[in-house]
Design a protein that fits this description.
The chain is of the alpha/beta class. It contains ten helices and ten strands. Helix 6 links the parallel strand 1 and strand 2. It is globular, with a radius of gyration of 20 Å. The two termini are 30 Å apart. Bound molecules: ribulose-1,5-diphosphate. Ribulose-1,5-diphosphate binds next to helix 2, helix 6 and strand 6. The site of ribulose-1,5-diphosphate has 17 residues, from helix 2, helix 6 and strand 6.
Length: 306
């Protein structure tokens, strides 16, 4: 009955779709397909179905507030309407989704425009994992004629760094690929670290791919500026009311398929970088300090707190 939602959730879970932006976009698109394929006859049943859809999507990956904010916004927009006809409600889901996705696209452009200014000629940029927002910023800098090179980590255990490396090469950017543990070895050659984000907490801490906080520590020790690029909607409102951001723990098999018996393997997907290690968050409103995240989100997206 919720086939489009189930299959999107499955793709997200298996990392066939990865990175917070792409996850949110996949979820929104599934919601639209679901709304159009609904067999609900009444408004009440239609929203019951969407509520179930929401639950399935939310549990596909725990550390994805952008997806949660996106799904919540789209459904809330339509829930407010007086419309009773299911077909019209499904159309309204499409419209709200389009609006949301357009806003997300605009944010990406803005972030790239602002962030590209921080890329200097002949500089070395270090990144970790695969962030479509980071890569888009670097693409923009390259198109503006900046000359720079990139060092990227392979990003164990799933090697998202390979995607980053391939994309950089396609753009004609000189790229060096290293194991995660070589980060300190190379950090003295780096001018700027730029990473993406999965979540930003109310205290201005950033949750991103496992290993990010280690890169931040190393960058601090080497006195290399460490920037995070993120849409403001990666802010997670639950952190404001006392909950911690949940850190997804993935299957041990990703690390070792056939491990010795009794070996404990832990595989957290993300870690938390404390705000003190972050030079700035490059978002659609500009480059902001982690400390001001609540104010900026409040100004731009007050509905997040509702
Ligand atoms: C991806 C990751 C990315 C952020 C930001 O982790 O940590 O840095 O999601 O990506 P995973 P984007 O591969 O486990 O999803 O900028 O594309 O939203």
């Amino acid at each position: 009955m919720l086939e489009p939602i189930q299959s999107a959730a499955e793709r997200i879970k298996k990392l066939e779709v990865q990175g917070a932006r792409k996850v949110a976009i996949e979820a929104i698109k599934a919601l639209v397909t679901q709304a159009h394929q609904t067999r609900a006859k009444t408004k009440k049943d239609f929203f019951k179905e969407l509520s179930k859809a929401k639950e399935i999507l939310f549990t596909s990956r725990e550390t994805e507030p952008l997806m949660r904010n996106a799904v919540r916004w789209v459904i809330n927009q339509v829930e407010k309407s007086d419309e009773k006809r299911v077909k019209k409600l499904a159309e309204a889901i499409s419209l709200s989704s389009k609006e949301f996705l357009k806003n997300l696209e605009d944010s990406k452009e803005k972030i790239a425009e602002i962030g590209a200014k921080r890329i200097r000629d002949d500089s070395v940029i270090f990144t970790h994992c695969h962030s479509s927002t980071v890569n888009y910023l670097l693409e923009r800098a390259k198109k503006e004629g900046k000359t720079f090179e990139v060092i990227c980590t392979e990003t164990r255990p799933i090697f998202q760094g390979r995607t980053t490396a391939k994309e950089m090469l396609e753009l004609g950017i000189k790229t060096t690929f290293i194991v995660d543990s070589a980060a300190r070895f190379f950090m003295n050659q780096v001018d700027l670290v730029i990473v993406g984000a999965d979540a930003i907490t109310s205290e201005g801490n950033v949750v991103n791919k496992i290993g990010t906080s280690m890169v931040a520590l190393i960058a601090r020790e080497a006195r290399t500026p460490f920037y995070v690029v993120s849409e403001l909607l990666k802010f997670d409102p639950v952190t404001m009311y006392g909950d911690y951001e949940k850190i997804e723990e993935r299957s041990p098999e990703e690390i070792w398929k056939d491990p010795p018996k009794d070996l404990i393997i832990r595989n957290p997907a993300f870690d938390v970088t404390r705000r003190d290690f972050i030079h700035g968050i490059i978002c659609e409103e500009g480059i902001i300090s982690s400390h001001s995240i609540i104010e900026v989100v409040h100004r731009k997206y007050p509905w997040v707190f509702e």
